[in-house]
Amino acid sequence: MSAASEQPYDLKGLKCPLPVLKTRKRLASMQSGAMLVVETTDPLAVIDIAHLCQEDGHTLVSSEKTPNGHRFEIIKA
């Protein structure tokens, strides 16, 4: 599945724990193997999103710093 066609899930401006809670809820509604691209500005999301993926078995394909925050590519377990 191409990440380029994926519309980013914009969680910019939200503070911990909202980005990880909304990411978990969005992943729950997706099919296994689907990719979710998440964009955040919360510095704690780097830790929280990685922990969510490890905890729930999702694959964190990439985690990259952006000019305004962070961007994550996650493949649902």
Automatic annotation (TrEMBL):
InterPro entries: TusA-like, TusA-like_sf. Residues 10-76 form the UPF0033 domain. Belongs to the sulfur carrier protein TusA family. This is Response regulator SirA.
